Amino acid sequence: MGEYTEQRNRDFMRAFRDEMKAMYNRGESVNVEKVIERVASREAPGYYVSYRYARRAVGDLIGRGVIANYSGGLRRHSRRDMMIEIGQKCRLRMEQKGINLGRALVDVLVEEKASSFFMTKSYARQLYYKMEKEKKRSN
């Protein structure tokens, strides 16, 4: 498993635990499905992607005009949508600061939060149960 995937999984589980505690403290009924749904769609600390991969993907999307012409809503669970979001943020920085894509991409990857974890609820559920199983094995 790649280093970015491992970090994303740790951050997801941390967000899961935080949301579960918050729900309990608010007096809400807590169940795994409800927590997963909330966490999978909430803001993530970062994008969990390498500069090299993002540079190729975003460069391609910009080159084909996808970023400039994209008007649809992001599904927040596909890798392509993540690259579109990164590309939109890069394009904005390039226009505002007069910098090139490489510099804009570094800024976005280092400074920006992602709008979500970019995973489906189904994948989030699988990840939760897998991480819980690994946790039990290591104890």
Question: What does this protein look like?
Answer:
This protein is mainly alpha-helical. The chain folds into 2 domains: 1-42 and 119-139; 49-116, no CATH class. The chain has helices spanning 3-25, 32-41, 51-63, 66-69, 79-97, 101-111, 121-138. It is elongated and about 50 Å long. The two termini are 21 Å apart.
Poorly predicted regions: none
Number of domains: 2
| Principal-axes shape call | elongated
Range of strand content: under 5%
Q: If helices are DSSP runs of H or I spanning 4 or more residues, what is the number of helices? A: 7
- Main β-sheet, in a few words? none
Q: How confident overall, as mean pLDDT?
A: 91
Helix content: over 70%
Give the H and E element order.
HHHHHHH
Alpha-beta content class? mainly alpha
Number of strands: 0
Rg calculated over all Cα atoms = 17 Å
End-to-end separation: 21 Å
Please supply descriptive tags for the structure shown above.
139 residues, mainly alpha, 2 domains, 71% helix, elongated
Helices and strands, with pairings:
Elements: H1 3-25, H2 32-41, H3 51-63, H4 66-69, H5 79-97, H6 101-111, H7 121-138
At a glance:
The chain has 139 residues and is mostly helical. The protein is built from seven helices and no strands. It is elongated, with a radius of gyration of 17 Å.
